[in-house]
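User: Can you predict the 3D structure for this chain?
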Amino acid sequence: MRALPGYPGPRHWRQVPVTDQHYLDVGTGDPVLFLHGNPSWSYIWRSLLGTLSPDFRCIAPDLAGFGLSPRVPAAKGSLDALERQLSYLAHLFRHLTGSQGLPDRRWTLVVHDWGGPIGIAWALRNPGVVARLVVLNSVAFPWPTGHRHPRYLRWIRGSATVAALARATNAVPRAALRHGVVRPLGAAERMAYLLPFADRQHRRTVVEFVRCTPLRGDDPAWRLFDPGDPCENDGGLVGLLMFVGWGTRDPVFTPPVLAEWTRRFPQARVRRYPDAGHLVMEDAAGQLDRHVRDFLRSA
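Assistant: Here is the predicted structure, written as structure tokens:
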């Protein structure tokens, strides 16, 4: 498709009957669930899908309010925003296991950005489903000491006026495409990323997710997906096979966040990509794809 270079064709497009949530279904084998973050959509996974689909059945939904999924009512804070996404994921999982022939065990979960807290909260609510976890520049615990959000995200979060301006100008996706990569994307790829957010009415969830980002450790949203300290033997994720792929030039998910992943999960296989930013799957596409494939084949 010219408008979506590299994206799987319509024959791979699906919808969940109850919610109309859009997802990609590509390949055969053990299931791999890809969860994108903000401000992106399933287009972000196109390179990994091409590498993994010969060996795995790859499911890549557009989160509610993003990509080709329907727009949803405004959330009432971070907890409500997360609960809504968890509800949509529950519908997707029941649809896939109930009528699409997927098993209810041995799933791999691949997460990025907001996909981390959403996916890990879902995994913790469904123990035994996820056997392997791939983390790409994300978080699933209160921000560690030393982390600081970029100024423009703090402005959007703290000011309704700035948030309205960001929505009117589509500033968040544009900033992500500019500052989230080390290697500039081509014009066609940038247009594909921005396509679902072309209309102002389709940008509300993007700005809403920025404003819903929990910052303080006592925010109730953290309790949904904080996996706990591995030393306490109740983390819920401690026994999972885990791969952490990290773009080290990320202005949002800074080195203290990666350090916290390695502290909590010393069993994780960690790969650092020094020439990659927040969109590590773009900057390190071929290398990351091979590393994830090798991890899944050997795990």
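Confidence is low (pLDDT under 50) at residues 229-234. The radius of gyration is 18 Å.
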